[in-house]
Amino acid sequence: MSTQESDASGNSTWTTPGKYVEPGSDFVRDTNYIETRITRDGSDGYPVEPGRYRLVVARACPWANRTIIVRRLLGLEDAISMGLCGPTHDADSWTFDLDPGGVDPVLQIPRIKDAYLARFPDYEKGITVPAMVDVPTGQVVTNNFPQITIDFSTEWTEYHRDGAPALYPEHLRAEIDEVNHGVFTEINNGVYRCGFAGSQQSYERAYARLFTHLDVISERLSRQRYLVGDTITEADVRLFTTLARFDPVYHGHFKCNRSKLSEMPVLWAYARDLYQTPGFGDTTDFTQIKQHYYMVHTDINPTGIVPQGPDLSGWNTPHHREELGGRPFGDGTPPPPPPAAEQVSPRDAAPVAADPL
Known about the structure:
Elements: E1 4-6, E2 12-14, E3 53-58, H1 62-74, E4 81-85, H2 113-119, E5 131-134, E6 139-142, H3 145-154, H4 173-188, H5 190-195, H6 200-221, H7 234-250, H8 265-275, H9 286-296
Parallel strand pairs: 3-4
Antiparallel strand pairs: 1-2, 3-5, 5-6
Helix pairs in contact: 1-3, 1-7, 4-6, 4-7, 7-8, 7-9
């Protein structure tokens, strides 16, 4: 069983790290998630019901960050509570080490694995976030992250805030799905294929695929402000969380180093546009992002040293993407500020540039 200890400075250290690189092999992501859904009709046994479910996330994780953004854009905070795991974990589970006593205050468990085992006592697959948990039973419902955000848009409409944007409009769904497929296989997962490559040849194949598709997406975004249509959609959320991690983590730690995001003008401006949009930058914690990757992936970074850089001040500089037109929220409105308990500390966000004298 893995144990957590503390060093002389009081920082948590894990005695049983996970293994992420298989020597001689390509990285292959296991996408066999729990496919149970929470729907209006409750066809899977879990009907939409405000206050019943808890979204368990980690700000460090790009897949979980998507759900945080969508929940906030749609205004589902009062309908779906949120539990925050810390940025580091061992081979066993994400844990609630940010909470007093290391226990989630609603679920009353120290690790998300407990919710998985409550429903599946012999669960042998990865313990992942995001996960939707049924609070009354303490059982995980689903960890199918691509479906979770789609269902937030389509099944929870009765509880959307006034002015919530249409992130998955019916007339654009086919195009959104097509764009999402390419972004996932080549970019979202592509950075991991580079970072977890088990051979030089595997890495070089992954590297070529990643930057080829980044160039394709850059060309698309040179003509339009958002990926699909003239408003923010699910597609933009999915690309953003990878771009936000690119310079802090993927460029160095995962060797995705043909160029930094900040050296790709179109993608850098696009990412800044989204970062400065309510719901995106205010859910992005750069400190936890760096801690997660550099401390958890000890087979890539054995020292566990977390780099001080990069300079984040550019994230709040003008992007001029509004010149391409488009309306971020369509006929809707920006979300209000996040609840106090869910705010990212200013020290963990990109600094706001000082006004010139």
